[in-house]
Amino acid sequence: MTESSASASPALGPDELDELDALLDELRTREEDVPQWEFCDGFLTALACTRRPVPAAEWLPMLLGDGLPLQAPEGEPLPLVPTFRDLAQQQRFLALWELRSAEVAAQLDAQAESLDADDAFQPEVIDMRGAIASLPEEERAEMEGQETPSFGQVWALGFMFAVENWPDDWAAPRDKEAAQWLDDALDAIVALTEDDTGRPEICMYDEDGPPSTSRERLEVFGEAIWAVYDLRQLWRSLGPRVETIVKGAQPGRNDPCPCGSGRKYKKCCGA
């Protein structure tokens, strides 16, 4: 294998993805609400696009615990989230998470010209409707009546779960153009959380499998991926939100805001 082909290899190969699925299945024996990896990957991708780097002490319990931030001295391992069997299992999950997180960041920063490019960002999604439709008839019959998510839907729900749980970090910037950019990108991802009600024409699970996904859905999926690129670029260009601490006397309501926005204090930080 050449150096270039090695660098293009996924950070998480099939063995690591199987390990993650098995690990999450094991967690589900203690907590039935543990999400599938597709949801986790959407959540992870949102964190890669969040304006402020969110530490594991915040996101880990939000995803797999009670939502309360973990407390640990600087440089010390995080305390155990009870959903995990032990610290070793938790640390292995975090190690695999970091591999995927680095891969996502590298893909998004590469700014691919086409979503078909080798280095383009690809969400970890599965065509569940296609997978079920490809099962033998008897196995399909056992799953009748079960609600099956549309292609990319679970991933998008995971993404929006992160957005909704860190509202301050996803608040619209003051710049109107940037705020519109943010709204348009999030709208594209929200569209992917909706059901695919179009006529099934394509199977994303098996190219020779029965149709399970509409062409309109693939367009929505592609727009959501480009939206992720936009969000990563937007927040990286703006940087973390700066909290202005005003010492001494507070400015008057009609004075210029000390944050430097150029607006009156009453219409900015003093609102």
UniProtKB/TrEMBL annotation:
It holds the Pfam family UPF0149. InterPro entries: SEC_C_motif, YgfB-like, YgfB-like_sf. This is SEC-C motif domain protein.
